[in-house]
Amino acid sequence: MAVCFMAMEHFGRIVIEGGILMTLPRGAMSDRDFAFLESMEDVLIAIGRMAFPIFCFFLVEGFLHTKHLKKYVFHLLLFAIISEPVYDLAFYGTGFTMEEQNVLFELLLCLVMMILQQRILQMEGRVKWLFALFIAICAGYMAEVLHLDGGLFGVALVSVFYLFSGKRVTRVFAAALVIIAASCYRVGGGFEFSFSNVLDVCVAMELVSLVLLNFYNHTRGFGWKYFFYLFYPLHLLLFSQVTGVLLEI
């Protein structure tokens, strides 16, 4: 489901927005058709916002249950590197840019963060929670500085999913607070609380993803071990090629 949601959002952003709306000359389509495509893009992006919290949740599940942590780290690093030029091409039209890095780097950073937090939480005393929080703050800062797709939002989500993994109600409540706080985050730093930020359809869809996660039954689904790793760069490559064809037309 998360893969489908992600693909829908990327189709809206890469193909509809990048391949049609932002590139067609003025007057190439009627105002009605343009408005329809804009509405379609908004719907796809809103639905797609359910994907990221689900991926963050299952990153934590993977960390808690993997028997090969080093392989987990290696696979994320390998496919993050493979996906980066495809990501840059799909979203920025070039094979290399430092403007933003793909989400696999974000998940990799969060995985390293959890490894450090796990070791800290094995210590004695309550101060260990302060150290775990400090690690999360450092990871969030790195995510923002390195312009990782997900940024501070992803780090905060993974942290609450991991630190409250044994407390279902607390985990959902904390994740909801993270989602609402992220909607008030201003690019460049700082927060600006307003009802227009909170009462947004994208925020609502992210909260819906938390409801979907409550149906998780703690059993493994399809054994497609490398499906997501391969799907991520391949669907970006496909959408970028479709965009290229549209630009030529």
Keywords, please?
single chain, 249 residues, mainly alpha, 11 helices
What does this structure look like?
This protein is mainly α and 249 residues long. It has one domain (50-230). The chain is 73% helix and 0% strand. The protein is built from eleven helices and no strands. It has helices spanning 2-21, 31-48, 51-65, 69-92, 103-121, 127-145, 151-163, 168-183, 195-198, 201-213, 227-248. Helix 1 (2-21) runs parallel beside helix 11. It is globular.
Write the layout of secondary structure elements.
Elements: H1 2-21, H2 31-48, H3 51-65, H4 69-92, H5 103-121, H6 127-145, H7 151-163, H8 168-183, H9 195-198, H10 201-213, H11 227-248
Helix pairs in contact: 1-2, 1-3, 1-11, 2-10, 3-5, 3-7, 3-10, 4-5, 4-11, 5-6, 5-7, 6-7, 7-8, 8-10
Work out the helix count. 11
Instruction: Give the H and E element order.
Output: HHHHHHHHHHH
Please state the structural category.
mainly alpha
Q: Shape, please?
A: globular
- Uncertain segments are none
Number of extended strands:
0
- Sheet with most strands: none
Report strand %: under 5%
The figure for the number of domains is 1
C-alpha-based Rg, rounded: 19 Å
- Give the distance, in angstroms, between the N- and C-terminal Cα atoms: 33 Å
Mean pLDDT score: 90
**Helix content percent band:** over 70%
Offer a quick outline of the entry.
The chain is mainly alpha-helical and 249 residues long. The protein contains eleven helices and no strands. Helix 4 (69-92) runs antiparallel to helix 5 (103-121) and helix 8 (168-183) packs antiparallel against helix 10 (201-213).
